[in-house]
Structures are given as structure tokens and as C-alpha cells.
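Suppose you are handed only these lines of text.
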Amino acid sequence: MLFDTHLHTTFSTDSRMTLAEAADAAEKKGIGIIVTEHMDIGYPEKNAFVFDVQEYFSQYEAKRSENMLLGIEIGMMLAQHQPAQTIIDEYPFDFVIGSIHFVDEQDIYQPSFYQEREKSETYGRYFESMAECIGRYRGIHTLGHIDYICRYAPYENKEIEYAAMREWIDPVLKKAAECELAMEINTRRLNSETVHSLLPVYRRFAELGGKMATIGSDSHRPEDVGRGLGDALALADAVGLQAVYFKNGKPIKMK
Ligand SMILES: [Zn+2]
Ligand SMILES: [Zn+2]
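From them, the structure of the protein bound to zinc ion can be written out as follows.
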């Protein structure tokens, strides 16, 4: 079965999609899903982008099945590593995504992060802090949306430029391969234009020893569940990564 391995329901601060809506959308598409709620410990606003994991399992455990698995998206921040690690270690997640949403405790979503800074500086620090975080966290299965910064950067060309940025990107990819992480192909921005800048990054990951890709829509709405799954599968194939999903922390081939 094909799996959308990255989506957010009501335990995520920014999602109002219910589990029933997500499951329904997946069933209509004939795919499985892994719920991956946001856990950004250290988020500046109190009680935002964190959730009660005990409550998550008590509400969703009964609905867990072969095609509805329970995961988490950890917003990796060096200063907050320990409390996040405790959560990863203590709960029986099928799947853990490690993502960078903050760099040097600044929110990449906020325009202030980019203010009076060149692309080389912000993207450089973004990849450096990603490399620092990978390897520090145990129990992460995939590196989430490596192109996250491109969603919010204000530059005319927001895309990752592998050739110009390899000195920062290669250490990330090497570290991820060393730690046997999968690379997420996040379909939120995947289209016929962005694929040209993303493909060299995923290909390089395979060259540096990366083996697996997970595919996630990062949906916050039912209509986005499973979006771009076919295109992402083709991309994984093209760069030589095995598309997988995780159950009980173990990778399972998608085809
Ligand atoms: Zn994310
Ligand atoms: Zn997400």
C-alpha cells in the first residue's frame, strides 16, 4: 500500500482536520496515512505547537490500524533536544519526522529571520543547524521537508541551489545517510518547476549513501491528503531511493 507519511490533525496547533476526515480522504484515495502532529518544544508562544502525547495516544490508539499509523513531527532545536528526546523515547510512535522550523531560535516562518540577510547567510545557517541537529536526536526516521525554508524566504529565487550551496548541503546529506535516516520528499511544493532544484539534492543523498525516501503531503486539510504521491514516487525511483513508510519504527517498502 502507498502511504502519505506526513499530515496534521487537530492535535497540531495549525490544523483543524479531524482524524476521521483524514482517514476518510485516505480511504477514498486507497492509501494509508501516518499522522504526524507538530511538537516544537521551545516555540515562543506558550502551549503552541506542542501537544499532550498521552492524550494523543489515548484518543487515537483505538483507531490505529494497518493503514492508519501514529507518528510525530519533531521540530528540532539544539537547545530543546533533551525534552524532545524524552518524548521520542517514551512513546510507541510508528514514525518520527525530524524537521527544522527554527534556526538559532528564530522562526523561519517569520519575515524577521530574513531581514537584512542575504540568501547565502540564511540558507547557510539553515543547513548548518540541520546538520548539527541530525545525529543529536536518536530515534528520528526521516529528515522532514529539506526545502522548508523555500516556502517562506522572500528572495526572488527561493529555491535551493545545490551547486552553489553544496558546502552546506553535503554535510546534511552525509550525516543523514550515516544515521540511516530516510529523506522526506515533501509534496507540498513539489511541482514541475521546483523538481529541477530538488532532484539534485535527493540524488546527492543517494550518492552519499542514503537509501530510503518517505513521502509526505504535510496536509492540514482533507483535500490535500495524498497529494503528489505518484510524482514523488517517480522522483524517488529516478534518484535511486527506495520509497518506504515506517511501522513500529521499521521501514516497509511501498512498492
Ligand atoms: Zn514541518
Ligand atoms: Zn508538517
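What can we learn from it? The first helix runs from residue 19 to 29. The helical segments are 19-29, 53-60, 81-90, 119-133, 148-152, 162-178, 195-207, 229-239.
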